Amino acid sequence: MMKKRLTNRKQPLFSVHFVISSLGYQLRYRACITGSVGTPPHPSTQPTLMAEVIEINSLPELEPYRLAWQALLPQTPRASFFHSYDWLETYWRHFGQDQQLRVLIIRSQGKTIGIVPLCVRTETYHIGKLRVLTYPLQDWGSWYGPIGPHPSASYLLALEHLRSTERNWDMLDLRWVAAEKQHDQALAHAIAQADWTPYRHPYQQTSVVHCEGSDWEQYQSQLPKKWRHEIRRQGRALERKYQVSMERHRPGGAAAGDQDPRWDLYDDCLHVSQQSWQGSSHNGNTLCHAKVREFLRECHGIAAKLGMLDLAVLKLDSQPVAFQYNYVCQGNVYGLRMGYDPQFSKNGVGKNLVARLVEDSFHRGDKKLDFGSGDFDFKRRFRTAVDTSYRLGCYRWDAWRSQGVRLTRWLKGQLGYGVATTPPREKQVSSRITAGAR
C-alpha cells in the first residue's frame, strides 16, 4: 500500500480547497503550483483541508474502505452497478490475475472523500504489447469515473499522484468518460496540470430512452408510424396464437428485505441465450459463454442483494422465448445482454419484449434506459437519444510503442476512420476541454 500526503512535497505543491457545510464536503477547489502561479488566498471562511492519496494494490488492502466506498456510491454521478465495490471485487477475483490494481483513495481530515479505481493491463496493438493504465471496466458498462460527488477534485489529485509516482505504464487511456464538464473537461484539465499532453477521442455510442419528464403515450407517439404499426401487428398476432406474458423482476435489495435473485428467471435467460446465436459465439462475453458464465452468475446474486438487478423474460404459453438482462441504479437501467429464441424470430418476440419493457419502465418511473453500445436496427428505432463516451489520456514520450499508437490514431483520423485528428506533435487538445489548463 502506497500512502502519500500531498502537502509534504517540495515545490511544486498541489493543494485542494474545500468548504465545510452541514451537508458534508461542499467543493471549492483550486489547483495551485507554488512558485509558478502563486498560492491561492486562504479566506477565514474557507479553511484549507490538505488531502492525502493512498494507493491500494490488492483486495485485502482495499477491504477496510468498503464502507466508505458504499457511502460514496449514491453520490457518484452516473452511478451504476459497475461502480460498486462488490462488482470490482468480483471482477478482480475472476479476471485480475494478469492485471495490477491501483485504487487511489483520497482522504482529508481522516475522511474518505473520493476513490479513483485504476488498473494496469497489457493490451495488444498492431505495433506490439503496451502496459495501459485505465479503469477496471473492460467494456462491461458504458460509463465510468471516480467514486464520490466531486470527480473534478478526484481527477486532479489522482493525476498529481500518478505524476509523482513510478510509472509502470506506457499509456494512460481512461475510457467510458461522459461528455460532461465535471468529467471530460475536468479530466483533460487534470492531465494538463500533471504536465502531460491530453488527448480526447470518441469511444462508444449508446442508444438511450429518456423516460424522465415524459410518459409512455408521448414516447409512443414519437416513434416512426410504420414501427408502431409493426409492433402492434406482431403483438396482436402473438396474442391470438399464444398466452403472452412478460415477467420482470427488480428486487429492492437486502436493505429493503427483498433480495430474491429469482434463479428460475436467470436460468430462463441462460436457456434462451444458449438457444440463440450466443450459444455458438466465441467472443467470450455472452451470458452463456464458459469464460464469463460463473462470473455473471455470481454478479447476479450480488446485484440482487444491492437492489441493482433488473431482468425481464417474455414467455409464450409459459415457455421463455426472449430475455432482457439489466442492472439498475437510482432509476437508470443499463441493458447488459438480451436475446431471443430463433424459432420465434419471425414473430418479433425480441421487439415485443423491448416494447413491453420500455412501457413498464415509464410506468415504474425510471429515468433512463441505456441499451448499451452498438448501432443495431432495433436500438435506432426505440431510442430517443444517442450518448457518446470518450477516451482521454496521454502517451508517454519515452515509450516508443505508446508513440506508435499515437501516430497510428492520428493517421486514421487523417484518413477519415473516426479517430480524432490532433496532429502527432500538437501540444494541446481543443480549447474547449483544456480551458484553464496551463
Describe this structure in words.
- This protein has 2 domains: 2-207 and 388-414, 3-Layer(aba) Sandwich (Aminopeptidase); 212-366, 3-Layer(aba) Sandwich (Aminopeptidase), CATH 3.40.630.30.
- Helices cover 31% and strands 27% of the residues.
- The chain has 12 helices and 15 strands.
Short description:
By secondary structure, the chain is of the alpha+beta class. It has twelve helices and 15 strands. A hairpin with a 2-residue loop joins strand 5 (99-108) and strand 6.
Q: Keyphrases for this structure?
A:
single chain, 438 residues, alpha+beta, Aminopeptidase, two-stranded antiparallel sheet, 15 strands, 31% helix, disordered C terminus
Text of the CATH class of the largest domain: Alpha Beta
Kindly report the average pLDDT value. 86
Instruction: State the low-pLDDT regions, or none.
Output: 5-48, 420-438
How is the main sheet built? Answer: 13 strands, mixed
Looking across the biggest beta sheet, what order are the strands in? 1-4-5-6-7-8-15-9-14-13-12-11-10
Task: Outline the secondary-structure elements.
Layout: E1 2-5, E2 18-21, E3 24-27, E4 52-56, H1 59-62, H2 66-72, H3 85-95, E5 99-108, E6 111-125, E7 128-134, H4 151-164, E8 171-178, H5 181-193, E9 199-210, H6 216-221, H7 225-241, E10 244-249, H8 263-275, H9 293-306, E11 309-316, E12 319-329, E13 332-340, H10 349-364, E14 368-373, H11 377-382, E15 385-395, H12 400-414
Parallel strand pairs: 7-8, 13-14
Antiparallel strand pairs: 1-4, 2-3, 4-5, 5-6, 6-7, 8-15, 9-14, 9-15, 10-11, 11-12, 12-13
Helix pairs in contact: 3-9, 4-5, 7-10
